[in-house]
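Our consortium's second objective concerns turning raw sequence data into structural hypotheses that experimental partners can test. To show how far this objective has progressed, the report includes one record in full. It was chosen at random from the queue rather than selected for favorable results. The single chain below, 55 residues long, was entered without modification.
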Amino acid sequence: MSVAREVNRAQQMREKARHLTEAAERTSDPEQRRRLQEKARQLQEQSERPDGLPV
């Protein structure tokens, strides 16, 4: 995978994580908030790994 494609993919994952975090802040359901926050955390971590792959 080219460096530019990897950078673009990482940016997209961070953007998705940001949207999920915002959605978590808006929801009143504690369980839904927890799930959204966890997914956002996973995406953020994945975007920071050099290979961009899940653990």
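The partners drew two points from this record. Residues 3-26 form the longest helix (24 residues). Residues 17 and 41 are 7 Å apart (CA to CA). Both points have been shared with the crystallography group to help prioritize constructs.
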